[in-house]
Amino acid sequence: MLTISGIELYTKIGISEEERKGKREIDVDVSIDADKFVDLKEVYNLIRDTVESSSYTFIEDIGKKLLSILADRYTPNSLTVRVRKPHPPIGGKVDYIECKLVYQCKGKA
After folding, report:
1. How many angstroms separate the Cα of 47 from the Cα of each of 41, 67, 105, 107?
2. pTM of the model
3. Predicted pLDDT of residue 108
4. To the nearest 10°, the Cα dihedral for 32, 53, 24, 45?
5. Residue 23's Cα: distance from chain center in Å?
6. Phi, psi (5° rounding) for residue 53?
7. pLDDT digits (tens, 9 = 90+) for 54-85
8. How confident is the model at residue 17 (pLDDT cuts 50, 70, 90)?
9. Greater confidence, 109 or 99?
10. Does an H or E element contain 66, and which?
């Protein structure tokens, strides 16, 4: 299992138009268990390009998109994607909100 942790990126994200006016920090962790070689620089570049090239309403949208792209590209045995939005504007002091998505190849345990 290979993990890249704490990828700090910036994108337009949020439910309200006000939230999406500027880019906000998004942090990503990815763990990949694959039978073939995985170029971690390529994984980082795919994540960066995916997150920074679009705007999103929910962090779940980012997670689903990353999970799909990485699963198609690397056909892993398993894949975990975590997406965090630090200090979300929800009316109180919060470190972050997080979405965790897991892909498990059928037939693999």
Report:
1. 10, 10, 20, 27
2. 0.90
3. 54
4. 40
5. 16
6. -90, -5
7. 999 999 999 999 999 999 999 999 999 999 99
8. confident
9. 99
10. helix 59-74
Structure-token pair, residue 52: 């920074």
Residue type, 42: E
Q: Angle, nearest 10°, between helix axes 40-52 and 59-74? A: 140
In order of 22, 46, 63, 75, 103, the CA distances from 108 in angstroms are 42, 25, 22, 12, 11
* Residue reference for tokens 């170029």: 39
DSSP string, 2-49: EEEEEEEEEEEE-SSTTGGGS-EEEEEEEEEE-SS---HHHHHHHHHH
Map out the domains of the chain with their CATH numbers: 2-104 (3.30.1130.10)
